[in-house]
Structure formats: C-alpha cells, structure tokens
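Job type: complex structure
Entries:
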Amino acid sequence: MRALLLAALLVQLMTTSGAAQTYAPSTPLPRTTSAPALRAFATAREVEERFKFGLDAEARGDWKGAAAEFDRIVELNPPEPKGSTAQYDLAIAYANLQRNDDAARALRTALARDPEFLAAMANLVAVDLARGDLAEARRIADRYVALAPDSARALYSRGIVALEAGDAATAREDFGKLLHGNPSYAVAHYNLALAEERLGRFDAAERELNSALALAPGYARARFALGVVLLRQGEHAAARSAFARATADASGDPALKNIAAAMRDSIKGP
Amino acid sequence: MIQIVSRTLASSVLAVAFLAGTLLSGRFALAGAASLQAMLDGALTPSSAPALLGPITSAGRIGWQCKPEHAAASKDARASELPTDPSTP
C-alpha cells in the first residue's frame, strides 16, 4: 500500500514539474504596438538574418553575395559590436574581390567604431601591404604592437612592414621578440636573418639561417639567403654549395630556382 | 708641319679612343657588379604577409569564442595563422 502511495506521489511530482517547465522563445516577442519600437525590432532581426546569409556566402566563396549582405548591414548602422563586425566582414569580402582600397576603408571604419579591434588591425596591415601603402601599414602595426606587445601576429606584421620599408633595426627587434616566444618558427629565423644581413651583421645572419635550415632543411629561400651571406663573407665554395642545394630544393619556385642556378654557375668550382 | 699635325691628331684620336674604351669597359664592369648586387638584394625578399583572418559572427569579437580575435592576440605563432614555409614540418 505504502509502495503504491509512493509511486503515485512520484508520478504526480513528475507531471507537475513537467507542466511547470517553460522555454523562452529564441527571439523575444515584441510586447509593444509602438511603430519606432517595432521598426527597431525589425531592423535588429534583419541585421541578424543578413549576418547569417553573409557568413554563409563567405563560407562558400561567394564574395559578391557576402559584400551585398554586409553592405546592407552597414547601411542599417547597428550598434556595437555589430557595426564594427559588419565592416570587418565586409572588408574580407572586398579583399577577396580585389577591392583592396574599399577593404582598407571598411577596416578603418571598424577601427574608428572599436579602437581595440585587434583582428581588424591585423587585416588592415595585410591589406595595406597588398596595396603598397607602407605608411599606413606601419602606423597600424605600431598601434597593434602597442596594444598587444606579445602577440605573435603583431610582431610578425610590423617586422614584415619594417623590412619592406627598409627599417632593419625595428625588424630585428620584432623578429627577435617573436622568436623568444616561438624559437621553432623557421620563417621568423629567416626574416631575422634578412634584418641582420641588411645591418651588415653577416655572422648573426648566417647563424639565423642555419637555425631556420635546422628546423626546415628544405627551406629553399633560406638556403639561397645563406648562399648570399656566405658570398658576402668571401666564402665562395660554401656559397656555391648553398646555391646548388637551393637550386635543387626550389622546384616549386621557378624564379628562385633560376637565380640560384645562375649564382651557382657564376662561382667557379674548386 | 703637316707631319707634326697629323701625328698629334693621330695620338689624340688614339688617346680619346683609349679613354673611351677604358670608360666604357669600366662602366660595363660597374654595371655588371651593380646588377649582380641588385639581383642578390632583390632575391632576398621577406616572407609573405600574413593571410587575412576569417570572418566574425554578429556576436562580435569579445570572448574566446571569436577565433580571429584570438589569433590576432595569441603569443603562439601556430595559433596566429602566420605563414609557414611549405617545407616546414
């Protein structure tokens, strides 16, 4: 009898708790008849929908379709973080459509709305390098490093901009710091070697290139650079050997292969 | 007199020719060295610029759910989506 009562009680409890369970709708229903409020609700809904369509378009490489969606979101001028995010996503679509000036403009707007948006800074430096605007690339890279001094991408980006602009001292500092946290990153050893070579520090350049090649023995560009550094130091036989190896390793880079072969052949063998 | 003039003329022409030859050969040698230097400098190019970081959802960049912002801030080169040489393991 007691067992029956207990079972009945449990069933009653389960039924009650099930009936009491409610689920909030995924998007709250508007509880107003005010026209401005309803318009704001509709706009917010449109922004969400267009984000979804835009991201789906980018995922399948439909950059034109994505640009149209994010462009419309920008027109709707949603509050943060959606406003700066729409500009950032629009820039990605523009960059893939080879509209780099428009991409840079969208990223500048994103940064004006959200001044600490690191991903927007990273992408603006990359877009500026593609546009050949080294002055803006350097300004943004400086700001990026100031906000995120340990960021590997910030250090790499400014290092590349500095090398392109002929500021070997800054490049040396940035790649040195990047390697401090990432000693097995062969590409950073290579770039640091270029900075050292431009500063006339051939021993240091040779050391960095040997480090890069120890990490990635088939790194043809690093092997070629080693040949150049050895040549500058008057080590002709070793340079010739490096150029010969670079020629063999550069099968995927015909331009490098040709110049490495020309250098190898211009140095007389023993 | 004519003989003296013609001898002077001949030596002048010879001197000019010699000077021109010296200058030209020197210039070509200089040009060769300069082009070799330019060729070497041009070949020592930095690695490529990093590729663009990917899109961000309407939730925005705040929080570790946002992969591009995480990549932009990371100390780790591998998490930062930086270029890797094809031969790097």
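Summary: Residues 2-41+53-80 of chain B form one domain. Chain B touches chain A through 43 residues (CB under 8 Å).
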